[in-house]
Write a structure and sequence with these properties.
single chain, mainly alpha, 1 helix
């Protein structure tokens, strides 16, 4: 973080006394956020009514 970013963060947290020097600022922990992947949806083998699931497009129907 740049110096002005750290001063702004300390001001928002209420840790910045008036008249303090901008030199020798305390370190501020920086939190990085990672995006999570969506969990894969599981397909059921059979529908609740007992019927077989529909065939994928482009596949021949069973005889």
């Amino acid at each position: 973080m740049k110096r002005h970013e750290r001063v702004r963060h300390l001001m928002e947290a209420g840790s910045w006394p008036e008249g303090r020097s901008v030199f020798g600022l305390p370190k501020i922990k920086q939190m990085k956020v990672k995006a999570r992947k969506a969990a894969p949806k599981e397909e059921k083998a059979a529908t609740p009514s007992g019927e077989q699931p529909a065939a994928a497009p482009g596949t021949p129907a069973p005889k």
